[in-house]
Amino acid sequence: MHKKIQIMTQVIAKHNQSPITTFNNLKCKECGAEYELQAIHVCELCFGPLEVTYDYSGLCSQVTRESIASGPNSIWRYRQFLPVASDHPIDVGTGMTPLVFSQRLARRLGLKNLYIKNDAVNMPTLSFKDRVVSVALTRARELGFTTVSCASTGNLANSTAAIAAHAGLDCYVFIPADLEAGKVIGSLIYSPTLMAVEGNYDQVNRLCSEIANTYGWGFVNINLRPYYSEGSKTLGFEVAEQLGWKLPDHIVAPLASGSLFTKIYKGFHEFVKVGLVEDKAVRFSGAQAEGCSPIAQAFKRGMDFIQPVKPKTIAKSIAIGNPADGIYATEIARKTGGNIESVTDQEIIEGMKLLAETEGIFTETAGGTTIAVLKKLVESGKIDSEETTVVYITGNGLKTQEAVQGYIGEALTIEAKLDSFERKLERSRTLGRLEWQQVLV
Ligand SMILES: Cc1ncc(COP(=O)(O)O)c(C=O)c1O
Ligand SMILES: N[C@@H](CCOP(=O)(O)O)C(=O)O
Fold it and tell me: Which CA distances in Å does 128 have to 121, 122, 367, 389?
């Protein structure tokens, strides 16, 4: 769409908005400069990131635990905390995913109060990105965009393509060319224009910034980023509500750009601010893959800047070498007494298997990273066995099957005869299940 038309449609859309909104403006996280609500994401004065601000005193009078609990069974029960004006947000059933009280994984790790927030079953595309995209596309529509887009490591591409299809928006998605088949097919099925860029995510992102400037599309994680990122707060809200309107002692979450991590923090604090939960010190710990760990490195070395890296890891969804919110994530981990750890690709695969074998949850590589870091933090005494700990599982293993191929054995092929079954059964019992799988690998 031409810029002029886009501005006109934005104005029209503005007039159609419901007048009762709880969000005010955009504010620079660095210098505090304020901007009207529009499709921009960096401060013109200092290039700092922009964030949505809210009228918290107005919010206090609008929301109660009861009003939230009687709302939709989706992220939109927290609508007043999200930067959308419409009474009809795009609701594809995103959010309110299970918070599972862990028995077997907890026992295996020696924890007494471990919960798993399972966004591997989020709707519609099985990752936490459905949250941020539902918010971003609702806002995109309000701002008058008819074409939406994203730079993605896969999950965001799936969410943007699916939810744009549902909302009838034109969609262009950009991904690195070497992504897993599940992520590629998981976008193509919704018929977006899918561009596989020869380069890594950071290169895709740079290209998309240029395209955003030239074409004036609504890029969910570029010019719509202030609205998009707010969707991750719902991962904080839901956990607080599901714990019986209480905050946990410790959370462990994966880090790529660092946005998710900082927004869970913002979500907890907003609930405290409006009196929905009691204030409490929550420790924030983050997880990265060793092959792409710029945030973990900055944290461990006590740096106040992020040194970008060239990613090389099987955890492709979190392979961001130059993370936009990395420094804010390190600040949160430091001030809350948390940690940021990294794990090897082998540990990531073991993390995926551990979660599957103990809890029946098949997570993708980002989740394997998070479980492996959780284990590392427990083993090094950085998580106390009594702490109420929530580990965030943000994506589904069916999308990254390549990562575990060759590590999980194979089906035992038998003839359709009882004696064939019994021979294989005997052999598998003699060897033991694990050894048997190793023979097959
Ligand atoms: C499954 C999954 N988990 C976690 C993340 C990390 O999110 P963020 O970039 O907000 O740190 C991503 C993408 O970046 C992802 O796809
Ligand atoms: N992991 C993301 C990458 C981009 O997300 P951002 O919020 O860090 O900009 C994806 O799933 O594509």
Answer: 9, 6, 11, 19
254 C-beta closer than 6 A to ligand 1: yes
CB-CB neighbours of 389 under 10 Å? 27
The ipTM, to two decimals, is 0.98
User: Do residues 149 and 173 touch, judged by C-beta distance below 8 A?
Assistant: yes
* pLDDT value, residue 21: 76
Confidence (pLDDT) at 2: 36
- The reported pTM is 0.94
CATH topology of domain 99-123+232-404: Rossmann fold (3.40.50)
CA dist 393 to 79, 86, 98, 352, Å?
Answer: 23, 30, 11, 10
Length of the chain counted residue by residue: 441
Q: Is 201's pLDDT higher than 60?
A: yes
What's 128-225's CATH class? alpha beta
pLDDT in tens, 330-350: 999 999 999 999 999 999 999
Is 257 a pocket residue for ligand 2 (Cβ < 6 Å)?
Answer: yes
Which uninterrupted H or E stretch holds 329? helix 326-336
**Among the bound ligands, the one closest to the CA of 202:** 2
In the chain, what are the domain boundaries? Answer: 1-81, 99-123+232-404, 128-225
Q: How far is CA 157 from CA 191, 207, 255, in A?
A: 12, 15, 18
The span from the CA of 289 to the CA of 63, in Å, is 39
CA dist 230 and 53 (Å) reads 10
Helices 129-142, 3-16: inter-axial angle, 10-degree rounding: 90
Would you say the CB of residue 259 lies under 6 angstroms from ligand 2? yes
155 annotated binding-site participant: yes
- Ligand 2: which residue has its CA nearest to atom 12? 152
Helix (H, G, I), strand (E, B) or coil at 340: strand
For residue 429, name the pLDDT band (cuts at 50, 70, 90): confident
